[in-house]
Structure formats: C-alpha cells, structure tokens
C-alpha cells in the first residue's frame, strides 16, 4: 500500500478482506441427530449478509477430540483444534441445554485449549425447553475463566416454537434482530480485544 493508501485507507478489496476479523461459529454438540448444524448454518447465513467479518462454521465433531485425561495429548485433533481457535478473533457458540448445562462434548473441547481463547469475544445462541438459558449462563462462567468477553445480547430459541417435531429448525422471524444485535457486539468487542493480543 502506498503512502496515500496508508493515510486514507486502502481501496483494494483483497486488503480489506484480509483485514476483516475471523469469527468462528462453534457447534456445541456432537451427538447423532443433533440440530446444531441447522442452527449454525442459519446464524452463518445471517452473518454472511452483513459483510463485516469472515464467518465460518467450526464443528468440534470434526476434530475427534478424546476425553480430557484419557490421552497423552499427542492426537492430531488436539493440535488442529488449538490452531483453529488461535486463527479466530471471536466466536459464536451454538449451545444446546442438557441437564441445565452445556454438553459434555463442548466442555471437553473448551478444556482442550487455553491461550487460544484468551482476549477474544463471544456471543451465544442457545436452544432448549427454556431457550437454553441455563446452559448459556453456565457457559458465561466458563468463558470468564478463559478471558473470553461474552456479549450481552443472547438469542434464545425454543424447542417448542422454533423447531418442528423438536428436530427441524424453523426459527421465528423475531430472532433476526437479536442475532444481528449479538453479532454487532461480537464484532465490535473482537476488534477491540485484538489490540490486546
């Protein structure tokens, strides 16, 4: 970039794309028949229309993580998981509620990293019989310990009104504004926290 470009900002599309934040949409379930991929793709569809960051689905099932404490830590999925997290500036967790908390698979995946989470921002989209609110509150406590700044706006989806037969995701239109407001906060905070890293 030339001198004037440095002062007035580049108009080069490629440079603008490279300067965008990278936000991972983390699917928090690995079980057969899960609906988190449907919810994640819905969030990504909304996010991609914004053009304010690079959004990608990050499926913890793809990394085939062992259970923490049952491994010597040499499985390739562990390193790949940490590398993926390190490449991201912020997160949106797709969280389903199990027994008033997050899934064991999500907690296990979170615990397989530490520094890769630090000084980044995250939003939560949760679902369950009570909108997944209790799982989201548990996740907020975990994120605090990992220096993840969780944003306030929190879209909650009901198994009774946003899913057909509890399995086919059909979100109500009213959630669109909440998802966009949550993404506004995730992008703003992710950009601010990038300075700390």
TrEMBL record:
Transmembrane segments: none annotated. Its EC number is 1.-.-.-. Keywords: Oxidoreductase. One of its GO terms (cellular component) is cytosol. One of its GO terms (molecular function) is FMN binding. Residues 22-149 form the NADPH-dependent FMN reductase-like domain. Pfam families: FMN_red (PF03358). SUPFAM superfamilies: Flavoproteins (SSF52218). It is an enzyme of class 1 (oxidoreductase). Belongs to the azoreductase type 2 family. This is NADPH-dependent FMN reductase.
